[in-house]
Design goal:
CATH architecture of the largest domain: Alpha-Beta Barrel
Number of domains: 2
Strand content: 15-25%
Order of helices and strands: EEEHHHHEEHEHEHEHEHEHHEHEEEHE
Largest sheet: 7 strands, parallel
CATH class of the largest domain: Alpha Beta
Distance between the termini: 17 Å
Bound molecules: 2-succinylbenzoate, magnesium ion
Helix content: 25-40%
CATH topology of the largest domain: TIM Barrel
Oligomer: single chain
CATH superfamily of the largest domain: Enolase-like C-terminal domain
Length: about 375
């Protein structure tokens, strides 16, 4: 049994190397809640809550997550008998949504569980790859700058390129990229910037031979996505629309997409992410691991998740240095010829840098199971 003695929340804030702009928000600084979970033998599991400072991506924020953790979720973890991370699911599911807050604890439980088994997180999740292909995201800025960044990332060896688009800057961006890089493995993420009124406009993206278009329409528009997918060649990939296994089943049944972006944070953690993986494998829906501009702790969880067999498309998993001057882990995540090695040491397999954790910490709160 996992005997959880102590849970600490480290509220951190890290400055991005450069602003990250999508169709709806620009992120300059990244707040995050780092979860440190200690058992009775002093073994530590790490997790991360990837909610943002404001509710632009999902309804959660750092502050709502803190409230959920402190007043509801941590007390549940303390009083539940947990033999396996999945044992917490029925208790968490009695509380609506708040998936990123739940995921912070779920991730820490998985890391702790794997460490107690002396196996890598990849192994205990059922991962089969020893290495994964890295993908990178280029956000919206001046087109020459975007081209310059793609060029630099291509030299670093990234295997898949995603650009953010918005209705004001879509054709300009995609046309210029295709002019410079006709064969680049390229996809575009709209973060819900369009509606069905834009059908003709979105159809005209087919000329760019994109691997997929991510979340063109609203988060709640599974039916509209199905209508759109029916009249475009470019595969639709859903991100903001997918919060649960049930959402995945609805999207598949409605033909709302051909591909799914899986983020542990958005679906409540690794337990549900793995369930989504398994059902998509059965239904032959390719999936890939999304990113949340996260620190190395969540990044390490993503690497383990992406080692599962049906993660067949390179995800938004880039080097620590893509966003950070100094990450919270040592060694940092690096890429070599577009490849990231899956750690084989117990748990997430990467050490947390106490020095950097303290350096970026705004405040910390410790909860003790008495
Ligand atoms: O829509 O996939 C998204 C970052 C934050 C929130 C939402 C998204 C993203 C990204 C960046 O696209 C992924 C990354 O490199 O971490
Ligand atoms: Mg997205």
């Amino acid at each position: 049994m996992l005997k959880i003695k102590e849970i600490s929340i480290h509220h951190v804030k890290m400055k991005l190397k450069s602003p990250f702009q999508s169709s709806i928000e620009t992120v300059n600084e990244r707040e995050s809640l780092i979860i440190e979970m200690k058992d009775a033998d002093g073994v530590i599991g790490w997790g991360e809550v990837v909610a943002f400072s404001s509710p632009w991506y999902t309804e959660e924020t750092i502050q709502t997550a803190f409230h959920m953790l402190k007043d509801f979720l941590i007390p549940i973890v303390f009083k539940t008998n947990i033999n396996h991370p999945k044992d917490i699911q029925p208790y968490f599911q009695r509380l609506k949504r708040n998936h990123m807050a739940k995921a912070g604890l779920d991730l820490a439980l998985w890391d702790l569980y794997a460490k107690r088994k002396e196996k890598s997180l990849s192994k205990v999740l059922g991962g089969k790859r020893q290495e994964i292909e890295a993908g990178v995201v280029v956000s919206i800025e001046s087109i020459p700058k975007m081209i310059e960044k793609i060029e630099a990332y291509a030299i670093e060896g990234y295997r898949r390129f995603k650009v953010k688009i918005s209705p004001k800057m879509d054709h300009q961006i995609l046309r210029e990229i295709r002019k410079h890089f006709p064969n680049l493995p390229l996809m575009a993420d709209a973060n819900s910037a369009y509606t069905l009124h834009d059908i003709k406009h979105i159809q005209s993206f087919d000329q760019y031979q994109l691997m997929m278009i991510e979340q063109p329409l609203g988060a709640d528009d599974l039916v509209d996505h199905a209508k759109l997918q029916n009249v475009i060649q470019t595969p639709i990939c859903l991100d903001e629309s997918i919060h649960s296994l049930h959402d995945v089943q609805s999207a598949i049944q409605l033909n709302s997409c051909k591909i799914i972006n899986v983020k542990a944070g958005r679906v409540g953690g690794l337990t549900v992410a793995k369930d989504i993986h398994d059902i998509c494998e059965k239904k032959q829906i390719p999936i890939w691991c999304g990113g949340m501009i996260e620190t190395g702790i969540s990044r390490a969880h993503n690497i383990a998740l992406a080692s599962l067999p049906n993660f067949s498309i390179p995800g938004d998993i880039s080097a620590s240095s893509r966003y950070w001057e100094g990450d919270l882990i040592e060694p940092e995540v690096t890429i070599n010829n577009g490849i990231i090695k899956v750690p084989d040491k117990p748990g997430i397999g990467i050490k947390v840098s106490r020095k950097n954790l303290e350096k970026y910490c705004l405040h910390e709160e410790k909860f003790i199971n008495s």
